[in-house]
Amino acid sequence: MKKVLLTGASGSVGRHVLKQLAQKDDVVLTVFDKKTSSSKKLFKPYREKVRIIYGDIRNPEALEPAVKGQDFIIHLAAIIPPLADDDPTLAEAVNVQGTGNLIKAARRYSPGAFFLYSSSVSVYGDRLNNPNIRVGDTLQPSLGDEYAVTKLAAEKLITESKLNWTIFRLSAIMWNDNHKISKLMFHMPLETPIEITTPEDTARAFVHAINHSKQLNRKIFNLGGGESCRTTYRKMLETVFDIVGLKKLDFPDHAFAGTNFHCGYYADGEELEKILHFRKQTLEDFYNAYREETTPFMKKTTSLLSYFIKRKLLKHSEPYQAYREKNEQLMKRFFG
Q: Does 101 reside within a domain?
């Protein structure tokens, strides 16, 4: 039996890791997560099979019962954007200090555990002009990307630890139920090349990794959906807008940033796929999920109200606000 600890099980990827691991007869699964009404509801169906420990990763003592005697630690817990950028102190405390707490607990209570960590494509920074990304490329978070800064700091803690580990730098994780509209929608330049991975496929990579620790040990990999998951941000938004009834992508100039974001194509993504064989879904599956959720009535209603919906969305555009207000600091960030 393999003893596995999973942090961040209530997140978009974590809930799929939880679902997949809970179905395995050779896994004894422990979940460590914050106690909220949503996490309690999510974990309720698993209470008979999964050991659930509630706590805060910022509290070292809370980790002790969860970490003891584990063979594998899948660490997904993190503060993500936009909150990570809005509250960098919180992001530092959870993403960096929390990861450090988990490493120390593992060293003390499960020194032989294999540590799997989810990092991000954001650590490579703006790749608009050179979109083909490899693991050995320069790591340079974009201006204002506090999340990427914390991910790099956490990577450093892991690679300098005495644990056995692997790091997966995740591409854009997208699905219709987890990619909610926020101000980040306008932070990405429309011409950005983007390679998505679905939460289900991403979770499958972490689950399969349990049986391939020797091949993965002390290595960093780019985790992406591959060629069938590649497009540009403009084409993606145009397709989704058409599916849900928002019609054309006709926002005014400067609504979208022109620089300082991230994403691209993983030129070495096949390396991890050859080991783990985790890819099952494509960009078309992502679009189909929207099609399945959008009834004819919903699409017609959205179409009738599309002008007003897009006006409301535009109010969330920080680049547009910066341009109109001539905010030089933010204009430098969003337009160079």
A: yes
